[in-house]
Amino acid sequence: MKSLTFVVLLCLGCGLMTSSFVLELPHMWSKLILTHHWPSTFCSMEHCHSKFDYWTLHGLWPDKGQECNSSLHFNETLIQDLLPEMQKWWPDLKIPESSRFWKYEWQKHGTCAAKAESLNSQHKYFGKALELYHKLDLDGVMKKCNIVPSETYYTFDLIEGNILNFYNVKPKIQCIHPKEGKVQILGQIEICFNSDFQLDNCEHSETDTVNLNVKGAGFSVCDHATPVYYPPLKGKLLV
């Protein structure tokens, strides 16, 4: 009888542990998305005037969850030593002198990244994003591959192929799609990492969209068959 009772308790215990695991697993991210945006394209949508002629950071986004912990308030004093780098590489393109953008990124994405011990503070989160940004050096890689801002157009396959060949993982490349549809404008590039901060493929569907709170506009996955415009800092605007 004691043996039977032990078996029953053991099974119940395993069941509880399994249920707990199943409930907790969906809430923990498994991939990080390091997102870069091209300032000229962003400012053509947001009507700002960018002085940045290199790919800047948009954010470091866990693949699961948004605004995960409202008790983790943004505090700029905790990242004072990182501010010079952030102002240069992770600026608010609309208001470069503001910390508003970092507060937004921390509240929306950082509080979810913080589920991992390696990112469980503002300093760890912003510091790791900068570290991965410099490790990738996307702007330098694009130039090495002779993909530079130009008034002429590129094929999507050329851009994606060079990034894939260099990093050996598939990125997600996003564009603006003007109404006339003859050309798309390069706007955002995502490169992904696993939970150990090793490069990983970015998964996406053709309907993936990033909402930038711009009426009638936004970044969506680039079309393989449409020419790509990579606008210079003071290039012509197509939107």
From TrEMBL:
GO cellular component: endoplasmic reticulum lumen; extracellular region; lysosomal lumen
Signal peptide location: 1-19
GO molecular function: hydrolase activity; ribonuclease T2 activity; RNA binding
A GO biological-process term: RNA catabolic process
Cellular compartments annotated: Endoplasmic reticulum lumen; Lysosome lumen; Secreted
Keywords from the named record: Disulfide bond, Endonuclease, Endoplasmic reticulum, Glycoprotein, Hydrolase, Lyase, Lysosome, Nuclease, Secreted, Signal
Active site per database record: 58, 105, 109
Chief location: endoplasmic reticulum
Annotated catalysed reactions: an adenylyl-uridine-RNA = a 3'-end 2',3'-cyclophospho-AMP-RNA + a 5'-end dephospho-uridine-RNA; a guanylyl-uridine-RNA = a 3'-end 2',3'-cyclophospho-GMP-RNA + a 5'-end dephospho-uridine-RNA
Sequence similarity: Belongs to the RNase T2 family.
Protein name in UniProt: Ribonuclease T2
Gene responsible for this protein: RNASET2
